[in-house]
Design a protein that fits this description.
This protein is mainly alpha-helical. It contains 1 helix and no strands. The termini are far apart.
Length: 31
């Protein structure tokens, strides 16, 4: 196993991307 820094950065970026995508969907969809 290599250093976990790269995997952690990818995980954080994925969580941020998913969070932004969910907020975008909430803004686009009608209430």
């Amino acid at each position: 196993m290599g250093p976990p820094t790269e995997h952690t950065a990818i995980s954080v970026a994925t969580m941020i991307y998913r969070d932004m995508d969910a907020k975008r969907l909430l803004m686009v969809l009608p209430p």
